[in-house]
Design goal:
This protein has twelve helices and three strands, in the order ααααααβαααααββα. A three-stranded mixed beta sheet has the order 1-3-2.
Amino acid sequence: MTQMNFLKQAYSGKNQWYWYVLSLLVIFIATQIGSLPLVGYIFLKDPSALTTGNINNVTSTNLGLALMLLSFAVGFFAIFLCVKYIHGKRALDIVTARPKIDWGRFFFGAGIWAILSILTFALTFLTGDNSDIVFQFEPSKFFAMLVIALLMFPFQTSFEELVFRGYLMQWAYILFKNKWTAIILTGVIFGLMHSANPEVEDFGMLLAMPQYILMGLLLGYIAVQDNGLELSLGIHAANNILSAITFTSPSSTLQTHALFMDPTPSASGWDTLFILGSGLLFIWITNRKYRFIQRP
């Protein structure tokens, strides 16, 4: 039986624009409800943070991290409810064109990206100026954070993949009838949605934003070419989990009990080139295994 194209699965169910707007509103409200425990925790720990917006001192605790990720878990389930009850689709329609989720692809993608990330980290660590970097391993705090990361980050990363590479990319395909437009549009939106991150404020739009947009384009391209989100889900999960447990800095979006702390972080155009190189190598390796890029 011929496998359906992942983007063309968008045409199943109810696809008028107002159903998408309604679903996005429901998903947004769900994530806000999911963030209420975090708001309560911030109020108890530091009420002034609610007015200043500086919540890093609160979310840097393990409980704060878990509560911050909880809102994404609520949003994760809200997406599937909207797909089923508003659009009348199968939940699988925004995940993969395969008969069922290929978990082997997910774990293979996560493993390859983890290896590439560790090699990149080791390369930059060994060739750069590391005099200020502090090894801050605190066993009780680190292992508690590790459990939280392994349990909760997959909800956060899956939420983002389902919204951008599943839901919005399929909608863009309906609107523009072109896969490249869908990939580029959602990739750019994905990057812009991270414009409020501390890295962007500290390092500037020209250095930080290309990294987010490039990741969005990479994840979208892989999802379309491989006919599903499994590899992209693996990349995103591995990327965020490793970021949380290996390295943190005052400019990091995630203030965690990571193994290393850089009190004076910096950024350069090389960071974007490292992502591009890792992405191309990832595509080459996974395509060797799954043959998802068809030669003309």
